[in-house]
Specification:
Elements (H helix, E strand, L loop, with lengths): L1 H14 L2 H8 L5 H8 L10 E4 L9 H17 L7 E5 L5 H14 L4 E4 L5 H11 L3 E5 L8 E8 L7 H12 L11 H7 L2 E4 L1 H13 L4 H7 L5 E4 L5 H11 L5 E3 L25 H9 L6 E5 L6 E6 L5 E3 L2 H18 L7 E6 L5 H8 L3 E5 L3 H14 L3 E7 L3 E3 L9 H17 L4 H12 L1 E10 L5 H15 L3 E2 L2 E8 L4 E4 L4 E3 L8 E5 L4 E6 L5 E10 L2 H19 L1
Parallel strand pairs: 2-3, 2-4, 3-6, 7-8, 7-9, 12-13, 12-14
Antiparallel strand pairs: 1-5, 4-5, 9-10, 10-11, 14-15, 16-23, 17-18, 18-19, 18-21, 19-20, 21-22, 22-23
Helix pairs in contact: 1-2, 1-3, 4-5, 4-7, 6-9, 9-11, 10-16, 11-16, 13-14, 13-16
């Protein structure tokens, strides 16, 4: 492989010109740098591509974007979808627009109709646009909440969800046969002039916002109480900067402050180390604004660069703002949804809610208490999207809500990916509901603990390094699968769910099916009722560990998390 890497480096260096050629020449003699860029290509999967931006087959650049788009184009042409078209969006990251235009030029050259957004847009709006326009596919240029050096390429199919595995495999196989340096491109201006590339603008925004507003469960609550929250919002330099405030204003929230320095789209993300709304540090500028202007704010909302995830910080009784874990947000939202639907007589008998397998079982307990069906699916919002599509086809259930612990929420079927705009509206409505009953969000959380018990969750990631980190991750997972675990931190393992083989094995030797598609995930059920899940990231060279516990008290739950984390960190080393 090393020899091939140096040959590929030389080929790229000989082919490219100008600054690109000079940047590769500057690597000459640095074998480690050359190997890191040319030893192995990015692996295209259901989550698309994600890497740092640079030249090379393992990096995000116009050549790997063109190569991947050519592979997608082959699938679209074989599916007879060229006239249905492809919607393309992009976020505020450096080079996102350039990559989006490159993808558009590849498709236009191949005779595939293109709908290109006229500026940065949230990921959920792309999902909506695919359904709204009847497109065969969609492309989103984004690296979600990764640091500024990264960019990514997500592909969606006609149902508005990310590409299903069988289509991802076909694209991957096609990409492997395509030379990234030889992909033909249409002239962008000529393609626009001919109508091969069409721009999407405000009319799509309005249709999307109307669909989001249509998912509201009690609009009157927000109109009556929204301004008593004194909301503060930060888009963290991303695509939510227009649509989140506009959505809330249309709902009647006029007392809304936006963190101005973070409302400027900027791929450098200058005010945060990482634009991830799961991190407490993302709320620092908002808290500074509240303190500086002595605002009576009780709730801060943040969205990530492509506005599909939200983060939430709430003011406690001591006046201190604390960020909520994604599972706590999910619990608040499903609890509110079921409460308000019951109170308004709007809870369908066939209603069903969805969570990912690594999200909190508190979700199940809340649904059970209301007599509402719930299902768990693999990690990846496409699996929630698939359930929505299935139920619309079969009529088995009415979709109520879907969430992942990584701060992704979807309140309606207007899109098939997580949505920070819709989640912001639902969250505001939920907060209004509690304030109308004389409760703060902190009070509502305490009530959940008192009613259902102290469910708590945490997790960590182990970074994987090397020339082919994805292969190394696979090897580590295979090793863990082979060796197995009989106990974790002294607590016996009762059952292991192996989602790769699709088998659940108990210590007594009994087996059952996971009833899920194949996925590289191990889920350990412990004698204590707690659970530990391990899976490789689908987009980054990391193995993720999830800890899910239930304690008799909050300190008891915290003690369990500390114990399990110490054990798993030692194991993963």
């Amino acid at each position: 492989m090393s020899g091939n890497a140096f040959q590929e480096y030389e080929r790229w260096t000989a082919t490219l010109t100008g600054e690109e050629k000079a940047s590769l020449e500057a690597l000459r003699g640095d074998e480690e740098a050359i190997l890191s860029r040319f030893a192995a290509p990015m692996q295209f999967g259901t989550a698309g591509l994600r890497s740092t931006m640079d030249l090379g087959i393992s990096r995000m650049n116009i050549y790997t974007v063109a190569q991947t788009t050519k592979g997608l184009s082959a699938l679209i042409l074989a599916s007879g979808g060229k006239d249905r078209g492809v919607a393309i969006s992009y976020d505020s990251r450096h080079r996102s627009e350039e990559f989006a235009r490159t993808a558009a030029r590849v498709l236009a050259h191949d005779g595939v109709k293109v709908y290109l957004f006229d500026g940065i847009r949230p990921t959920p709006e792309l999902s909506f646009a695919i359904l709204h326009l009847g497109c065969i596919s969609g492309i989103n240029i984004t690296a979600s909440h990764n640091p500024k050096e990264y960019n990514g390429y997500k592909v969606y199919w006609e149902d508005g969800a990310q590409l299903p595995p069988e289509h991802a495999d076909r694209v991957s196989a096609a990409v492997a046969e395509i030379d990234p340096l030889s992909v033909p491109l249409a002239d962008f201006d000529e393609a626009v002039a001919s109508g091969a590339i069409r721009f999407l603008g405000g009319e799509t925004d309005d249709a999307f916002l109307a669909a989001v507003q249509g998912s509201a469960l009690s609009p009157a609550l927000t109109k009556a109480w929204g301004n008593k929250l004194h909301l503060v919002y930060t888009p963290l330099h991303g695509t939510g900067y227009k649509l989140v405030p506009e959505c809330l204003r249309r709902a009647g929230v006029t007392d809304l402050r936006v963190v101005e320095e973070q409302a400027i789209p900027d791929g450098s993300f200058p005010t945060v180390a990482s634009p991830n709304p799961e991190n407490d540090a993302c709320f620092e500028r908002a808290v500074e604004l509240i303190r500086r202007e002595n605002l009576p704010c009780s709730l801060i909302i943040a969205s990530d660069p492509d506005a599909d995830r939200i983060g939430v910080a709430v003011r406690g009784e001591d006046g201190v703002f604390r960020a909520l874990h994604g599972n706590r947000i999910g619990a608040l939202l499903i609890d509110y949804i079921l409460r308000i639907r019951k109170e308004t007589g709007n809870l369908p008998a066939d209603g069903c809610a969805i969570r990912s397998i690594v999200s909190s079982p508190l979700f199940d307990a809340i649904c059970d208490s209301h007599g509402v069906s719930h299902v768990s699916v693999l990690t990846g919002f496409k699996y929630i999207g698939e359930k929505i599509k299935q139920w619309e086809s079969t009529g088995d259930h009415t979709f109520l809500f879907g969430y992942e612990e990584s701060h992704g929420y979807l309140p309606g079927s207007y899109a098939r990916d997580k949505d920070a705009i819709g989640a912001s509206l639902l969250l505001t409505e939920m907060a209004c509901y509690h304030i109308s009953h004389g409760r703060s969000i902190a009070d509502a959380l305490r009530e959940l603990d008192e009613t259902y018990g102290y469910y708590r969750e945490s997790g960590f990631s182990c970074a994987i390094t090397g020339l082919d980190p994805m292969a190394i991750m696979g090897q580590r997972m295979a090793s863990l699968r082979k060796d197995g675990l009989s106990e974790i931190a002294g607590v016996p393992v009762l059952r292991v769910r192996d989602y790769l083989s699709g088998v659940i094995r108990s210590v007594t030797g009994e087996t059952a099916s996971t009833e899920q598609p194949s996925s590289d995930v191990l889920y350990f059920e412990l004698e204590s009722g707690d659970a530990i899940a391990v899976r490789p990231s689908g987009t980054e060279p990391k193995i993720k560990v999830y800890l899910l516990v239930k304690g008799e008290t909050e300190p008891h739950a915290a003690e369990k998390l500390t114990k399990y984390e110490a054990f798993m960190r030692g194991l993963m080393k």
